[in-house]
Amino acid sequence: MVNKALENAMDFDPNETPTGKYRAGKIRDRNLTNIVKAAEEEFVQHGYRGTSIQAIADRAQIPKANVHYYFKSKSNLYIAVLDNLIHLWNNFFDEITEKDDPAVVLDEFIRKKVELSYTHPRASKLFAMEIVQGAPHLKDYIRTEMRQWVRRKAAVIDTWIEQGRMANVDSMQLIFLIWSSTQHYADFDTQVLTIMNRAEYEPDMIRDISDFLSQLILRGCGLEPPARPAPQTALDDADA
Amino acid sequence: MVNKALENAMDFDPNETPTGKYRAGKIRDRNLTNIVKAAEEEFVQHGYRGTSIQAIADRAQIPKANVHYYFKSKSNLYIAVLDNLIHLWNNFFDEITEKDDPAVVLDEFIRKKVELSYTHPRASKLFAMEIVQGAPHLKDYIRTEMRQWVRRKAAVIDTWIEQGRMANVDSMQLIFLIWSSTQHYADFDTQVLTIMNRAEYEPDMIRDISDFLSQLILRGCGLEPPARPAPQTALDDADA
DNA sequence: CATAAACCTGACTATTTAGACAAAATTGGT
DNA sequence: ACCAATTTTGTCTAAATAGTCAGGTTTATG
Known about the structure:
The structure is a homodimer. Chain A has helices at 4-9, 26-50, 53-60, 64-70, 74-92, 102-119, 121-132, 139-162, 171-187, 189-196, 203-220. Chain A is mainly α. The radius of gyration of chain A is 21 Å and the shape is elongated. The structure holds a DNA duplex.
């Protein structure tokens, strides 16, 4: 359980991890992973209500009753999946301070966010579905942890603006802009890829997208793109 | 039926409009409107599979069998709702030419898109859900009409770039950026409002959002914001 | 190898679902 | 008032659903 907000939101009490001899079997872990992954896929494609345990079980290639053995209920499994997602998000982004260079921080943030969308498209989509539907399970999380997170970042950006180190833009809106534009490539991949007549993303495209977004947004903030380490060669590491 | 792509996608054959005396009754229209609106709300909140005809009927305050009278099937009703949505979109955006001023066109596009998100949040969200879920019903539409639409716009932007009238940016990515950033305020309204600690959008906020996005994106494209008519006073119309 | 805990699973139940249908009610024109 | 087309609605059905449960199987350890 990563966040308390979720804990209160529902009767989350996953079937207790066994305490005896079995407590950490390979099979158990594999099953749990399979179920959660299958659940993610089904929930993304059909929503919470539209997903049946049977479908999840089929996808995970285990009997339906087995899913109920590991997770008491459907809502339970869903919360577990969401919790994974929040965990992922929380661990991915560092804190920043006013001493950092705005251009470097924003550039890194954009690139990390695009990368996250690329490496974890299911998580991104599931989160999107939750929010679009009115965040029935994540409202508390947004009101508490997420709001604080945004306020901390916004405060730093405001300091940069006061110090004249970047253009005077609404810091919160800037964060929303970065969120929306980066996430779009994961959440709306079907639309983007179909319009671009591609089957799937490739590393090249991801780099192009990151470059485009970073360039345009930084320029929009009156910033010069930071010097980026040359790709591939990790030789020149020393800073001088 | 606005687009052929949808027509082929499913067995769309709405219960034939009666030809006799009843053909265009007030009651019929009111019922149809109520059902479609209720359906939009339910489909957004619970997805296609997660929505029951009963719930739609309850929301529209008519018996369930009545919904089936107006729309043969659930999938039928869904298609009708999506069709409304496409219609709305198609009628909202004008064509542009290379003779237009890039700053004016982009500024207008951004503002119109924000406005559309504000006035039709349900439509925006429903579209988002469809795409996130892999566009099972809209894939053809995206591949044909939408792709062409994007290509036309992108071609004009490319001409502007060749003529040195704006910075050299990837035109398609620019369109995606505008889409994503504007739609975000409708689709993720729960998140945005909760983080900003507001209950709902107000005209002021919408103006601020439009100003922010227009400013930042235009600056990112190396453009100066166009002279905008002063709000409220529509007196000074003459151009000199 | 004995045993107890952990795990697996087929069969069952109560509820909800989309859709069908027939009989009733309403409508507008004659 | 009468009629035929249109609209309304209660009732029925077959399929799918989440969750239960009892009994069987596997596993680690003494």
